[in-house]
Amino acid sequence: MTVLIFLIPITLALGLLGLGCFLWSLKNKQYEDLQGAANRILFDDLAENQDKK
Amino acid sequence: MVKFCLHCGENTKVETEDFCCLGCSAAYKIVGKFGFQNYYKLRQINSSVRKIKPEISEEIDVAEFTSREKDGSNSVSLIVQGLHCAACIWLIESILKKQKSVVAARINLSKKTLFLRWTGDAKTGNDLVHLIHEIGYKLLPFDAEILNSADKKYSDSILQALAVAGFGVGNVMLMSYSLWFADLNEMGRESRNLLHLFSSLISLPVIIFSARPFFASAWRSTKQGFPNMDLAISIAIFLACAVSLLQTLRGGTHVYFDSAVMLIFFLLIGRYLDLKARKKAFTIASEFTLLSASFGRVEENSKIKILPTKQLKEGMILVVAVGEKIAADGIIIEGKSEIDSALISGETLPKKVAQGSEVFAGTINLAAPLKIKITKAANKSLLSEIIRLSEEAENKKNHYIRISDYLSKFYTPAVHILALGTFIFWLKSGWENALMNATAVLIITCPCALALAVPIVQTIVISNFIRKGILLKSGEALEKLRNIDLVVFDKTGSLTIGSPRLVEIFLLQKNEKILPTNTQKNYYLKLAATLAAKSRHPISKAILESFEGQLETLQVQEYQGLGLESNFENKVLKLGRKSFCQLKNNFEFDQNKLTCFAKFGEDELVFLFEDALKLDAKNTIEALKKMGKKIILLSGDAKNSVENIAKKLQISEFYFEQTPLSKVQFLEKLKAKNQKFIMVGDGLNDAPALALAHVSISFSKASDISQNIADVVICGEKLTPIIELINSAAKAISLMKQNLLIALLYNLFAVPYAMAGHVVPLIAAIAMSSSSLLVLFNSLRINSAK
After folding, report:
1. Distance between CA atoms of B101 and A16, rounded to whole angstroms?
2. For testing the chain A interface, which of B194, B206, B209, B467 should be mutated: the one with the most A CBs within 10 Å?
3. Average pLDDT, chain B
4. What confidence tier does B221 reach under pLDDT thresholds 50, 70, 90?
5. Tally of CA atoms within 13 A in the half-sphere of B398 that contains its CB
6. Interatomic CA distance for residues B420 and B412, integer angstroms
7. Which residue in B490, B637, B686, B711 is the catalytic one?
8. Residues of B in contact with A26 (CB under 8 A)
9. Beta-ladder partners of B90
10. B344-380, pLDDT tens digit by residue?
11. Distance in angstroms (rounded) separating the CA atoms of residues B595 and B309
12. Percentage, residues of chain B above pLDDT 70
């Protein structure tokens, strides 16, 4: 059972990593414009081609 | 063949023309110049959004709204009107990014805002805004602080707390699972203590972080002397933590960390949904800053100066061009014109004005240039008066007590008495045991399902309505819709379409009117529409709209304020005022209707117009009456036209020539009689009334202020959504009540167990999650109930 002493902190560290990522994305305003993000992807290619011209 | 404008997609009416107006043609060239022709292939025009059509726009100065960034560039936030689809975002952003001065340009499609950053002074910024105006989108600067309001910060903090609580629940459950299902013989005392220790290490920080919204709200409400449900929640969480910590340190059997964290998690979900259902994007105050962003042209020492509306003072001379909004209240000192005051007074027909007439800020000058002497500074104008009135009315609105708040008034004391009773009863078996059992009672009665019951239904209903083009801005409106006694309608723009429509054409012969044959009618209409196409007068627009097909190509001369003239097959064509057309026939016409005269060669014609009813107005009124609602018509328009509409719709109670203030006074009287009413209105003059109403409904074509104040905004010209709204509200309320009943029943069963000391953490967890799930599934029934 001593393995628990290592395993539990590892799970916690992984969980905290995920939590940290989420909080970072929240702070970074990733959820400000969900509608725009969904639509924007359609025009990514186009924007690139335009730049090359 | 009908041809559509290459730029804005409107019917061009002339087959040889590619564009509907010069503005669109210029816009098309700009888009082409920057190499974005692809835009026209990719975009999808959404008919409910403002057309992408350049207007003679008021000049906009972003200077007052810019803020300086660290690197010396300037930035401003603007509201974008006319966003149809993703291609619009792409076009605006790409064109802006091609400008050398632009550092960043990003559109937020959900909020319909543009963030623009550039190097250079405010003038460069104005040029950028002007460029986008020329393509046909409208940009309005606003104070970016509004987006960072307290509401937004609160909703962000709830989301953060939710994320942390979610993390806590997941990880504590890992420990709890083994604690629940393995007994001491299998696990050993040391393992159990270790798991308890880890549970507390995860839970305590999580609880301290995530439960702050509840602690804060409980503290606030207790300080005010009205403890709310959050107090019960806070006490339960605090006790659960204290007891569990004690048990952990002493190597005890049960800890309630998992229950406490799960509780917070569920409650935060409810809180978040509630917040989403309740939020209003912009306040009236912010709308005012938008309005005051407009400008007036002032003549000083025979020089023209452009001043922001705010700086307009009494006695200044204002010069107003055709098609411009008048910036301040005043008296005309030079010029004759027609004024569209639909926004302010609700009158459909343009008003003729001449030297000495009084005009108000916010009205639009239609026919000829005017010079106006300002009589009231902008902050005292009728427009700002209306806005002030609206804000006052909104403050006066009684605070609505929501169902769940009402329930918590009884629930909280009851729960605390039960817990206290349990504690006293178990004292004889030791205080530690008594405290454990009392805590179990508090945990099991914690209103998880209760907190989820209402917001879940609200969220589902609101998202259903959005799909149907009905914008419900607050979840509370749903609860308030359930016991409405009467519906108050505004006329222009609410019951009627809001602009004149052509109803009849008559031929005049020997002082008599006769109906033309169909071929004649088409011929005349075609000629009239050809002339009308060159003018922006509401009547010209009405003629053009009623004509389907292609126009002649003619040289048309416009005489401001009088009419239009042209030549066709050696005949002189005239359209406009009676005197302008020089008619030989004489005839009296219905005073209710607006008239326009024409002389095509020797044929003399009269066109009759009316502000037509919305197609479903009659059905809606009938259905509302059947539901037992009283109907009142409250209009700013003249007696004749209001009477006419009331007769058509069989509305017995109607009032005319109402000012914004008298509307409010009328509604206040209703309120004093304890009548609950819906106000349906669209104009600026309705705004104070809308703010006062129990539930207010407006339309997507309405003035911005009305839309902002209204609880519900209906897209398009339909009225039937009102019926749908009332019906759905009834359904939603019954579901909410069922949900609350489920939550209460669960408590009724679980509490005796807890008081008897049988509730171990496992049972608490099962009871809590199952009751929440039950409430969720019951709420989803609203989708299948239809």
Report:
1. 42
2. B194
3. 81
4. confident
5. 11
6. 12
7. B490
8. 156, 159-160, 163
9. none
10. 666 666 778 888 888 888 777 877 788 889 888 766 7
11. 36
12. 89
pLDDT single digits (tens) B429-465: 888 888 888 888 888 887 777 778 888 888 888 888 8
Please name the residue of chain B whose CA is at the shortest distance from the CA of residue A42. B86
Q: How far is B109 from chain A (nearest CA, A)?
A: 5
Q: In sequence order, what are the beta bridge partners of B318?
A: B298, B372
Are the beta carbons of A15 and B171 separated by less than 8 Å? yes
Q: Is B754 exposed, middle or buried (0-12, 13-18, 19+ CB in 10 A)?
A: buried
Residue B329: active-site member:
no
Q: Tell me if residue B723 falls in helix, strand or coil.
A: helix
**B193 interface with A at CB cutoff 8 Å:** no
Most confident range (mean pLDDT) of B209-218, B607-616, B770-779 is: B209-218
Task: Identify which has the larger pLDDT, B337 or B395.
Answer: B337
In this structure, chain A runs to a length of: 53
| Higher per-residue pLDDT: B29 or B560 | B29
Cβ of residue B36 closer than 8 Å to a chain A Cβ: yes
H-helix segments, B99-149? 122-135
- What residues form DSSP beta bridges with B325? B364
Confidence of residue B289 (pLDDT cuts 50, 70, 90): very low
Helix (H) or strand (E) holding B102, with range, is strand B102-108
For B537-589, give the secondary structure using H, E and C: CHHHHHHHHHCCCCCCCCCEEEECCCEEEEEECCEEEEEECHHHHCCCCCCCC
Helices then strands, counting H and E runs in chain A, come out as 3, 0
Given a cut of 80, whether residue B334 has pLDDT beyond it is: yes
Residue B553 contacts A, CB cutoff 8 Å? no
Q: Please report, for residues B149, B379, B518, B646, B692, the alpha-carbon distance to residue B388 in angstroms, rounded to integers and kept in the order given.
A: 21, 10, 52, 31, 13
CB contact under 8 A, B171 and A33: no
Whole-angstrom distance, CA of residue B565 vs CA of residue B559: 8
Instruction: Look at residue B163 and tell me whether its pLDDT is greater than 90.
Output: yes
Binary contact (B35, A16; C-beta < 8 A): no
Note the ipTM here: 0.84
B454 touches chain A (CB under 8 A): no
Q: What helix, strand, coil percent values describe chain A, rounded to 5? A: 80, 0, 20
Average pLDDT of span B267-283: 72
Say yes or no for a CB contact (<8 Å) between B109 and A35. Answer: yes
**pLDDT at residue A53, rounded to an integer:** 43
Cα–Cα distances in angstroms (integers) from residue B214 to residues B217, B227, B242, B396, in the given order: 5, 12, 17, 28
Measured between alpha carbons, how far is B116 from B203 in angstroms, rounded to an integer? 44
